[in-house]
Amino acid sequence: MRIKTKPLLFLIVFLLGLKTYCQQNTYNTDCFVGSESNLYEHYKDSIKATTSAIEKDPSNAKLYGKRGFYRTAIGEDSASYDYFKALQLDPNYVNAYFSYGLFFSNNENYDSAKYYFQKGFELAPNDFEMCSEIAYMFYYLNDIDSAIIYTQKTIQINPNYAIAYNLLGMIEMDKGRYTKAINYFNQAIERNNNIAIYYYRRGYCYTSLKQTGPALKDLNLAIRKDASKSYFYYQRATIFELMNDYLNAIEDLNQTEALDKNYEDLYCKRGLLYLKIKQPEKACKDFGNAVINEPQRAVALLKKNCK
């Protein structure tokens, strides 16, 4: 199961994630650390201030790079122009290659992102963050061999970079090699135990191996660290179902629905659980709701179980 999350910039377009991005990313010293509600206004003000500075010094590449960062932070596509201009003024501006790559990555233009990360890496061959981003771009482009090569390079440069081990775990998980994947997620967590998705992925692997004890522990930790992900609750519901704890499974699917009413398989899964606890009316209601996302399966369940 592939959940696409970019190692750095996947946080940036969501203002709630900017603080985390700023803590992880060594490239930008312009991050604002304040209350989340003030972030948007801070970056808008920063764009105005940087624009004024550019008017006074239009040949300053770093000013364009800064404004690009601010614009990216609030989801403005005009950031692309700023990074392009920064590199036009200074073709050796490593930070701009990195930020431009992140911009394209965030917009799922992985070929362009890879190009700029590689250009930056040519200028800074010991940059483990840049190298890791190249690996992720290859992964998203389904060039797994190249992703592994660049991940191994990343680890050679910095053996303690958790993001690199996470990618190796994702690759093994995609191949169904869950024991190997768990080993890599262990190494990622040993190096950074604050990232919820690492626990989710390891828990997913434990679930696939029917090891419900450690799976439940991991999903509890993932939800404790980040309660906003619908698929965390869905996965924990799957674990509860394997444990025959149908009431807790239904409760977690209720939370999944609260976060994402269109979550695939939600209603069929919950409807079947309602049948197990002998609540057919609720089950049939869920099967009816499932017709939109899973018409064939939902209709079959309705015909079989509902009058």
Summarize model confidence as the mean pLDDT. Answer: 89
**Radius of gyration over all CA atoms, rounded:** 22 Å
CATH structural class of the domain at 160-226 = Mainly Alpha
Discrete helix count: 17
* Fourth-level CATH superfamily of the domain at 160-226: Tetratricopeptide repeat domain
Query: Secondary-structure element order, as H and E?
Result: HHHHHHHHHHHHHHHHH
Main sheet specs? none
Distance between the termini: 35 Å
Fraction of residues in H or I helices: over 70%
Using the 3D structure, state the CATH architecture of the domain at 160-226: Alpha Horseshoe
The chain-level structural class is: mainly alpha
Give the overall form: elongated
Q: Per DSSP, what share of the residues sits in E-state strands of 2 or more residues?
A: under 5%
Total number of strands? 0
| Weakly predicted, low-confidence segments | 1-29, 32-36
CATH fold description of the domain at 160-226: Serine Threonine Protein Phosphatase 5, Tetratricopeptide repeat
Short description:
By secondary structure, the chain is mainly α. It has 17 helices and no strands. Among the domains are: 160-226, Serine Threonine Protein Phosphatase 5, Tetratricopeptide repeat (Alpha Horseshoe), CATH 1.25.40.10; 245-307, Serine Threonine Protein Phosphatase 5, Tetratricopeptide repeat (Alpha Horseshoe), CATH 1.25.40.10.
